[in-house]
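Recall the central idea of this unit: under ordinary conditions, the amino acid sequence of a chain determines the structure it adopts. In this exercise we apply that idea directly, starting from the sequence alone.
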Amino acid sequence: MPTPFGGVLLVSEVYYDALGTEPDEEWIELYNAGAATIDLTGFKVGDEETQGSSTEGMMAFPIGASIAPGQVIVIANKATAFFALYGLDPDYELVESSGSVPNLTKYSSWATGTVELSNSGDEVLILDAADGIVDSLSWGSSKWAMSPRKSPCMRA
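Accordingly, the structure predicted from this sequence is:
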């Protein structure tokens, strides 16, 4: 039986509302807030919150991928679009566009669609090797991962 993940891996930033070409310029940033290096072999990231769906996607890290304590990694939709925006390569890409950037691969056991982040509301999830949810984030109309409370100065 798999051991539950004991690290601290977080979705730290999501660029879902690209100014240019969507979804090419979208990206997801992960942060290791723990004290140990995390072996990402078997870990997945994507925007499908329900196993067995065909509308959204889940992508797996390549064998040997890891993230050091305090490190952030960027997963771009397309590395070439990310490079055009920022002048540097991301750590990984979802859609093959650059031979110098490792690709994540489709994880069809969870979802068979593609990872394309909706501007009006969506989610990003990290799954561990046993498909347990490590962290998740939602925005806009999606309240799946979190439903922020209204502040006293907001009107209903």
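The mean pLDDT is 89.
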